[in-house]
Amino acid sequence: MNIAKGHDERVKKLVLAIGKASYPRCQLVADMGLKQGSRYIFRHNYLKPAYEMGLVEMVYGNVPTKPEQVYRLTPKGLALWEELTAPQPAKQERQNACPHNNVDCPCTKEGCPRHGKCCECVKHHKEHGKKLPACLRGIEWEL
Questions:
Q1: Spatial contact of 82 and 61, defined as CB atoms under 8 Å apart
Q2: 57 confidence band (pLDDT: 50, 70, 90)
Q3: Do 69 and 117 have their domain in common?
Q4: Fewer CB within 10 Å, N- or C-terminus of the chain?
Q5: Do 16 and 81 share a structural domain?
Q6: In this structure, are 79 and 128 located in the same domain?
Q7: Is residue 105 domain-shared with residue 70, that is, in the same domain?
Q8: Mean pLDDT across the stretch 82-95?
Q9: pLDDT higher than threshold 50 for residue 31
Q10: Is 40's pLDDT higher than 90?
Q11: What value does the mean pLDDT take over residues 84-90?
């Protein structure tokens, strides 16, 4: 989802704070760890961009200064909240588990099941007493 540049982290933080419930401004300010006296800053930097993007709506009409006013996510905001809170796929977690994995793997062997998984490749070569993988040849390394 495209979020206005400069407000993206703030809007995401607000969407995550609201979630599937409705909250008054003072509760949102407290939950987000902001100072209670920063009503204008909260409204200008968090609520206004989210409201203009159609992510947040006011429950009691379009009057942000109403004492009983509470805010909730629109269907578009709920979709963003679900996107932000969805767990990452297991395959991607496994791919990113090792910092040496390389999506742009220079391996020259076609059909290699360890393509892009450098740690698995080096482990395989060590266990089977093979030479260094093609991507590491020319680098000083001990088996």
A1: no
A2: very high
A3: no
A4: C
A5: yes
A6: no
A7: no
A8: 68
A9: yes
A10: no
A11: 75
